[in-house]
Design a protein that fits this description.
This protein has 205 residues and is an alpha/beta fold. It is built from 7 helices and 9 strands. The strands form 2 sheets. A 7-stranded mixed beta sheet has the order 5-4-3-6-7-9-8. A two-stranded antiparallel ribbon has the order 1-2.
């Protein structure tokens, strides 16, 4: 994983350094080759996705939202939002990430940023996780996943949990359920997003 990525600051959150892929598809091939496996999940953990960048920026700029509390990061990927929560003063950070390689990347990235390694779970709903704040970045790109996340976040909000999500306005994002907080212009990979900058928003449930 280290050989397939490079350590670099996150474009919109330079306070945080991550192991990032120059080419996610090349990283995918290298990872499968190194492990002698095929059919691995795409290495979403190797990219600082725009929704995660927006959430990380928002948490660092508003530490009062998480300081001293428990934060759950849904679809954590690289751990970007989870690391930001720890840096902002969260007492406990939990990263929900089903990909074992993603969990390994989160641990590596936490160490690089000198924050405690988040508690990693594969499925927050099955693990019975309790949190004060739930964040979810870039989880609205597939209908099935979006439906699952929507149900879980609705349950958390109904229980009084503060829910934040970051997204570029993908098809399956249920914007009508959320209140817009802020938007950022975030640099992204042209190969992945088809443009150099995307408007990315943070929303509250």
């Amino acid at each position: 994983m280290r050989s397939a990525t490079s350590l670099a600051p996150v474009p919109f959150v330079p306070e945080i350094i991550l192991h990032q892929a120059d080419d996610i598809y090349a990283t995918w091939e290298l990872t499968e080759s190194a492990l002698g496996q095929t059919g691995l999940a795409p290495p979403f953990w190797s990219v600082a996705w725009p929704g995660g960048q927006a959430l990380a920026r928002y948490l660092l700029d508003h530490p009062e939202l998480v300081i001293g509390g428990t934060v759950l990061d849904i679809g954590s990927g690289s751990g970007l939002a989870a690391i930001a929560a720890a840096m902002a003063g969260a007492a406990v950070v939990i990263a929900a990430e089903p990909d074992p390689l993603g969990a390994a990347a989160i641990a590596m990235n936490a160490a690089v940023n000198d924050v405690p390694v988040p508690i990693c779970v594969g499925d927050a709903s099955r693990a019975g996780v309790r949190a004060d704040v739930v964040v979810a970045g870039d989880v609205w790109y597939e209908r099935e996943l979006a439906d699952q996340v929507t149900m879980y976040l609705d349950e958390m909000a109904a229980a009084g949990v503060s829910v934040l999500t970051g997204d570029i306005g993908r098809t399956y994002f249920p914007a009508g359920r959320y209140v817009h907080l802020t938007s950022y212009e975030i640099p992204v990979s042209v190969a992945l997003e088809g443009r150099q900058v995307v408007t990315t928003s943070v929303w509250r449930r």
